[in-house]
Amino acid sequence: MADNLFPDSVKDFVFDLHDASRRSLVPSEQQALYAGSFRDVTAKYFPTSSWPAPEAIASECSNDELFLALYNELTLRHLQSVKRPNVRDRIDGWHAYRKLFDLILSEAPQDGGEKGRDQLYLLPEWCFDILHEFLYQFQGFCQFRTTTYSAAAKTADDPEKSPASHILDSIEVLKENRDAWAVETVLFYLHRLVSVGLQKNVNVTYRYLAYFASVTLSRLECLLGDYKASISALNVIYETDAETLAVGEEMKSPEELVNGVFPARLSLAYHAGVSFLMLRRYKDAARMLGGICLFMQRGFKTGLLRKIPGSDQFNKLFDRMIALLAIVVHICPMPLLDDSIASVVREKHAGNLSKIETGEEGYEELFVFACPKFINPAVPNYDEALKAGALTMPYGQDTYKLQVHHFMNEMTAQQTLRKMRSYMCLYTSIDVEKLASFNDMKVEEFEPWLVCFKHKMQQIEQSNDAGAQDKIGTAMDIHYYVAANSVHVDEAEKTRRFENFFMKQIANNDDILKQIEKLNVNV
């Protein structure tokens, strides 16, 4: 598009955004442009089409290569949100992100060198949006690769059928670009952004990118099924000795930075919650998921969350996290949740939990609904997809099924343990033989389960004390030991808490006052 063929408001927007990100570096100006003007101009001129190409607007930003890469990513993100990308769009997206990250990293000062002049400022929201979309497109590409392979394989055994032309075209493009969206390269960029952003001599934008890259890395490791790495990726955010950083006119800790961008906070809590659950760290899963659900519940009531872009997805993710909490509280009967969230869990999933109590399957249904879309990053042999006898089952489904199978193996054991616990809660002392008969087992079969229960409910817990190391704890609400062929049971000491009662009454009084204020008392 020639320079004179698009409106002046588009030129002004590009010029002003370049100025705010590369010259004046004023957060408030960039906030108005990124969160306001871009949407307004898009809705007016490009609601379902692409923005001008970077080459067309290069004169408005003095041919600034890094800014043009930022502009390209921003406009491609919009385009992929309004049209379904084909294989070439996905490859173009990969090259756009590689160029952007290479340019950002090339401008970073060398580790140990002098701090350079600030030449780049990006809002925290913008930094997270770039990284979030980067991983979203990687996940979409892996799923596209899976469905394309499957579609080609389905017709390979039938000589009278041949794959559709767009499938053949996609296979050819994928074969020519086998290194596109390679998982090792995706991991390299995320780790590199974290390491560069934690250097002492970088400006605040690189620190934003480092902390949001760690959130994105945690999400990626969760999708790949490496749950320990998913939790470890977040360590840089929760370091107690981390330096504060400027966010607008305020100084914030890394944790406060992430919490200030709600989509980042939500992504962190959800994927960390899934990882804690799969690592059998039930208390930490309840703490992480329960905290974000309580915040969201209040945000829904006040309307605060509706003002955030992407709010249409918040309800879906809230429901999925409530389903995860239903699993957690059923496995770990200790009081872990706020009363309001516990009541939501009961209201939404009482049916599934009652099915589990009666011995029917219910855990798998909850987990399938609540779990993320796990991905297989392996590149298939595309030539095999076009040969007779090719597997028609999408190879990428193996990863998803593996995680569900792993989860259900754990839950099968939990059903036996839960039944055993229900009987132990009725006694202070009971013969091992009698308890084994209640559980329909022989003594020699049952004794290992007594040890298994202790082991399964032992877990690592994050300490509440700042700077303290994680500790070994238990998710059991009873204590038992075996002596002289008898099981002796002590119920865990219950801490009586009164603050919840008073807080609930205060909230009820506030509701009553609001209703009274609405009454028309004029006679």
Largest sheet: 3 strands, antiparallel
How would you write the strand order of the largest sheet?
Answer: 3-7-6
Which of globular, elongated, flat, extended, rod-shaped describes the shape? globular
Task: Spell out the helices and strands N to C.
Answer: HHHHHHHHHHHEEHHHHHHHHEHHEEEEH
- Give the radius of gyration: 27 Å
- The proportion of residues in beta strands is 5-15%
Assembly context of the chains:
single chain
Mean pLDDT: 86
Terminal CA distance: 68 Å
Number of helices: 22
The helical percent reads: 55-70%
Number of strands: 7
Low-confidence stretches: none
* Backbone structural class: mainly alpha
Structural overview:
With 523 residues, the chain is mainly α. Strand 1 (245-247) and strand 2 (250-252) form a beta hairpin. The chain starts with 7 loop residues before the first helix and ends in a 5-residue tail after the last helix. The chain contains 22 helices and 7 strands. Helices cover 63% and strands 6% of the residues. It is globular and about 85 Å long.
Question: What secondary-structure arrangement, pairings included, does this model have?
Answer:
Blueprint: H1 8-22, H2 27-45, H3 54-57, H4 65-82, H5 87-106, H6 124-154, H7 165-176, H8 183-197, H9 204-224, H10 227-232, H11 235-238, E1 245-247, E2 250-252, H12 254-260, H13 262-278, H14 282-302, H15 314-331, H16 339-357, H17 363-370, H18 382-385, H19 397-424, E3 429-431, H20 432-438, H21 443-456, E4 458-461, E5 471-474, E6 478-483, E7 486-491, H22 499-518
Antiparallel strand pairs: 1-2, 3-7, 4-5, 6-7
Helix pairs in contact: 1-2, 4-5, 5-6, 6-7, 6-9, 8-9, 9-13, 13-14, 13-15, 14-15, 15-16, 15-17, 17-19, 20-21
